[in-house]
Amino acid sequence: RSDDPGLLATAAAGLSHAQVELHSLDVRWEAGAGAVLARFGGQSAIEPARDAARVMGEQGLESEVAEDDGALWDAQRAAQRSPEGTVVKVSGLQSQTADLLHTARALEARVVGRAGLGLCWVTLPSERDAAEGVRSLRRVMAPSPCVVLDAPAGAREAVDVWGEPDPAALVLMRRVKERFDAAGVCAPGLFAGGL
Questions:
Q1: Where are the domains of the chain?
Q2: pTM confidence score
Q3: Of 101, 139, 156, 178, which one's alpha carbon is 20 to 30 angstroms from that of 145?
Q4: Cβ proximity of 123 and 30 under 8 Å
Q5: Which residues contact 52 (CB under 8 A, 6 or more apart)?
Q6: Are 162 and 192 in contact (CB under 8 A)?
Q7: Dihedral (C-alpha) 45, 51, 56, 61: value to the nearest 10 degrees?
């Protein structure tokens, strides 16, 4: 646990490169503090978990080993969606984790994500301007895609849920769509770039 986004990102990267066999490596940020979550399985899961706790300690993080972590991981997965808030899926790089967590802290947002992959879900608080929050995330995380998964109607109207696609990728997507949907009848206008 830490309230330092940079320390969390560094510790997660360190653990992802450590000589331990992980089932899952996640990061969580909420209410001004965060944690790196590591999951192990099998009959001898406690030993690699202790090794991971040692690595986290070397990185400057407080750590604990929990034998029954089902509820923790269920909460992590549930936080990928929100019935009332705005959730943005960020497909970034592991090296962008610190920037994402710093931005989340400034936006008072919640983050859950795959620390080793750079894939994160950011939940913007419903009381803030969701459209501006999405724009802030896109500015910081560019060129990584930031796609709005869940949002109130007003936020969806104020921002393109797909974001601005890469021009070269958009040309390719148009060609693929023309090839497989020449008549343009499959969900016209709903995908990135109005495809």
A1: 5-158
A2: 0.85
A3: 178
A4: no
A5: 15, 18, 20, 22, 38, 40, 63
A6: yes
A7: 80
